[in-house]
Design a protein that fits this description.
- By secondary structure, the chain is an alpha/beta fold.
- The chain has two domains: 116 residues, no CATH class; 328 residues, Spore Coat Polysaccharide Biosynthesis Protein SpsA, Chain A.
- Helices cover 38% and strands 10% of the residues.
- It contains 19 helices and 13 strands.
- Strands 4-3-2-5-9-7-10-8-13 form a nine-stranded mixed β-sheet, sandwiched between helices. Strands 1-12 form a two-stranded antiparallel sheet. A two-stranded antiparallel ribbon has the order 6-11.
- β3, α11 and β4 form a beta-alpha-beta unit.
- α5 packs antiparallel against α7 and α18 packs antiparallel against α19.
- The two termini are 45 Å apart.
Length: 556
């Protein structure tokens, strides 16, 4: 279901879509009932899950209780409960109260539904793409990242990623292994060796060269960038991207390459084996490859794995394990890792903010395991520039520009079985569930109110639009930080006290796409450092299963 977003509401539909007293609600909420089919049925116990809802309408009820004693007790039966012998002089007052009260009650109820729905589903455009349509994330400056009509979910495999010859694959694998083994730090002779508390910026890179070029230039403007180590983690071999990264001179650089990318496994797992089921394949009798037509385990929604989608979670999981457990430079390192992606844009003070949060963490939030420097809110007020909030890690809202130290990494990876078996191909939604279940109350977050990271890539691996314009998104981000330059580089942060909220009664359903046993086994093996040992066996599973099934058919 495509959830309604308040930022996307326009006036294309009028009040004719909203029955009854809702016509009196200020503004137009287009097709509200059509956009939220069966919402009450999908969210059982809603009233119980919206603390303070009845408190908010208590004043309204109080205003009419003299005329309708049972109103607050039995709103659904309002008209049945009105006494039939109300005097005429009171009936006019009653009618006036009803005209004022019902629209207000309806408005409060509908807004509460929308707020709860948005709260549990907000995410950026990289996620939530399987099996349901993607969530739309809008910016708060009035500019839409994307119109609904322009966006489509793509299940197509980019042929550029699966077109290498066997010889090219062997050559690239050899280069990747050499680079991963060497662990060279470019520009180390210029800026000195990495120390025990050097900040590391870890960037996940696919193949969007224009976005990456902008980020590389953007990082060059960050204060103290030459004191950090920037690690680029790639899942695609591109000579152009490699030249861009190795040509950086403003700061230390390291490259690491995800060794299980579909680019170098185009016809076998973790890529798409020719024996794999299509994502929307329907089995006649069920079973995992039992009928010999194709191989694979369906997810919770009956869909089969799509390698371009599962690769993102595999890559994220591999890179975090690689940086904390697989690099020689980190053996005695005790600093923080700041996580970015190729389609991000950062503020000039992002490293200053990170250092300040680390310095104040012992006072503001000693138990926080995550420092979140990014969110999806564009605030233009000096009142938020030096404010932070503390809460359990809201991964769906703070999945860009977050930082972890080794303690935070260990807290997450002790739940690796949960991460690897949760049926959601999105790494961030998987973490969202992990934080609220396996690691409940253990992954606390201290987050800046003013974002220091912006997402400037509305066209991604899953999302295709009629027209993509990364330059305008990048320019919008640049302009935002220029206009708010007076509020950057705060000397200290202050804790923003926010009202306590009751935990959600239930978590959103997983998005699926992660039901195949091979994906889960590879994920576990990465956490245990055994991925190279198990990979060949995983690649042969489809072939063995298909061969066995075909032989059984011949014997019959």
């Amino acid at each position: 279901m495509l959830h309604c977003s308040l930022d996307l509401i326009d006036s294309s539909c009028g009040a004719q879509d909203i029955p009854g007293p809702c016509k009196d609600i200020p503004g137009d909420i287009p097709g509200l009932y059509k956009d939220i089919p069966g919402l009450c049925k999908d969210i059982p116990g809603l009233c119980k899950d919206i603390p303070g809802l009845y408190k908010d309408i208590a004043g309204v009820c109080k205003a009419v209780t003299e005329e309708i004693p049972d109103l607050c007790r039995d709103i659904p039966g309002l008209y049945e409960d009105i006494p039939g012998d109300i005097p005429d002089h009171k009936m006019s007052r009653l009618t006036r109260h009803l005209r004022l009260t019902l629209p207000v009650l309806s408005f409060i109820w509908l807004v509460s539904l929308l707020v709860l729905d948005l709260e549990v589903t907000r995410t950026h455009t990289h996620t939530h793409a399987h099996p349901r349509p993607p969530q739309l994330k809008t910016q708060e400056d009035g500019h839409r990242e994307a119109e609904v009509s322009e966006i489509r979910l793509s299940h197509e495999v980019d042929q550029a990623e699966v077109s290498l010859s066997e010889q090219e694959i062997r050559d690239i694998k050899k280069k990747i292994n050499e680079i991963n083994d060497k662990q060279e730090i470019i520009n180390e002779s210029v800026f000195g060796q990495v120390t025990g508390n050097t900040s590391i910026i870890l960037i996940q890179v696919h193949r969007r060269l224009s976005n990456l070029r902008s980020l590389v230039q953007n990082l060059g403007l960050v204060k103290d960038i030459n004191q950090s180590l920037v690690i680029f983690s790639h899942d695609y071999w591109s000579p152009e991207i490699n030249r861009l990264v190795t040509g950086i001179t403003d700061y230390r650089v390291m490259q690491i390459f995800f060794p299980h990318a579909i680019h170098i496994n185009p016809s076998r797992f973790p890529g798409r084996d020719e024996r794999d089921c299509e994502w929307n394949f329907k089995r006649g009798n069920g079973g995992n490859g039992s009928n010999g037509s194709c191989f694979g385990d369906p997810d919770s929604y009956g869909h089969y794995r799509e390698a371009p989608f599962t690769q993102i979670k595999h890559h994220w999981w591999w890179k975090i394990n690689r940086v904390f457990n697989g690099l020689r430079v980190n053996l005695s390192w005790s600093g923080w890792v700041l996580f970015l992606e190729e389609d991000h844009y950062v503020s000039p003070d992002i490293l200053h903010v990170l250092a300040t949060l680390v310095r104040q963490k012992g006072v503001l939030c000693p138990d926080c395991r995550v420092l979140a420097l990014g969110n999806y809110h564009k605030t233009h007020s000096a009142t938020t520039a030096d404010k932070v909030k503390v809460s359990p890690w809201a991964v769906n809202q703070h999945n860009l520009g977050y930082a972890l130290d080794r303690t935070g990494f260990n807290t997450i990876t002790q739940c690796y079985q949960f991460f690897c078996h949760h049926d959601d191909y999105n790494w961030d939604w998987t973490l969202y569930h992990l934080v609220h279940t396996c690691a409940r109350l253990m992954v606390m977050m201290m987050a800046t109110e003013m974002t220091r990271v912006m997402h400037v890539g509305s066209c991604g691996t899953h999302i295709k639009k009629a027209a993509c314009d990364p330059k305008s998104e990048i320019e919008s981000a640049r302009r935002y930080y220029a206009e708010n330059s007076d509020w950057l580089f705060p000397s200290n942060f202050k804790l923003q006290r926010s009202p306590q909220r009751s935990p959600a009664s239930r978590l959103p359903k997983p998005n699926g796409g992660w039901g195949d046993g091979r994906d889960r086994a590879l994920c576990v093996a990465i956490a245990e450092g055994k991925d190279e040992d198990i990979l060949e066996d995983l690649q042969w599973r489809a072939r063995r299963a298909t061969f066995t099934s075909q032989n059984s058919v011949v014997k019959r």
